[in-house]
Amino acid sequence: MSKLPKQFKFVDLSDYGRRPGRWIATSLVNTGITPIGITTLFIISGIFAIAAILFKYFALAAFLLILKSTLDAADGELSRLKNTPSYTGRYYDSIADIILNLLFLLTFMYVTDGSLLYTFLAFFGIQLQGTVYNYYYVILRNSVNGDSTSRIFEIEAPIALKGEKQSTVNRLYKIYYFFYGVFDKIIYQLDKNAPNSKPFPKWFMTLISIYGLGFQLLCMSILLLLNLHLYVIPFFIGYSVFILVFIGIRRIFL
């Protein structure tokens, strides 16, 4: 099931895990396995990827990163197939992503004897990249009556949906806001008027999808397969230059 109506679908370069993720979700729809259970599996996959990097099994690590990305797509697909949207799952997923991203980069720093400062800059860059992508994608989904579990402005805890506890949503929201609040504020300040725009064209969304988490993990995987793990941290620092380019395109032309 798509997050967008058919006429607004675009080629999402970060969403290569959607098809296998949909197959996984379809296989599990009539079982007792929950979307949160799938999220937990992608956390485990990420942890094993870290272990593989530490022991320099780079091909295995690359596979596990792609598996993590696929499972990341499967949890949302399963939620939509079971018709069980939840803020609990949405925040749990996002919190897991940011913690794993930090751990991935710290692992690369360790195996390359890298700089903590550069690692922080790479992490900050990765999160801003993902925030730009998610900001525009969520705006598009909300403007065309697509999936609305993610909100454009995360300024207060949402009202719990059927089947989840408000206390759990409140707790996870606070953790989510602690991790993501600063990135959301920075991107919003850079493009406050984006929510008032017409639906973004497909070419723009495809272009900005290179900042999606799936594409970021794909870049890590390719560098690992090429034995270029030394360049992962510098790559993501430099990769951040397109943030201002994409925001400039949106503000000037869209």
From TrEMBL:
Origin: domain of life? Bacteria
Q: What is this protein called?
A: CDP-alcohol phosphatidyltransferase family protein
Q: What GO terms are given for molecular function?
A: transferase activity
Q: Which UniProt keywords apply?
A: Membrane, Transferase, Transmembrane, Transmembrane helix
Q: Source organism lineage?
A: Bacteria, Pseudomonadati, Bacteroidota, Sphingobacteriia, Sphingobacteriales
Q: What is its EC number?
A: 2.7.8.-
TM segment ranges: 21-44, 50-71, 91-111, 117-136, 203-225, 231-249
A Pfam family (short name) is: CDP-OH_P_transf
- The top EC class, named as a word, is transferase
Name the InterPro entries for this protein.
CDP-OH_P_trans, CDP-OH_PTrfase_TM_dom
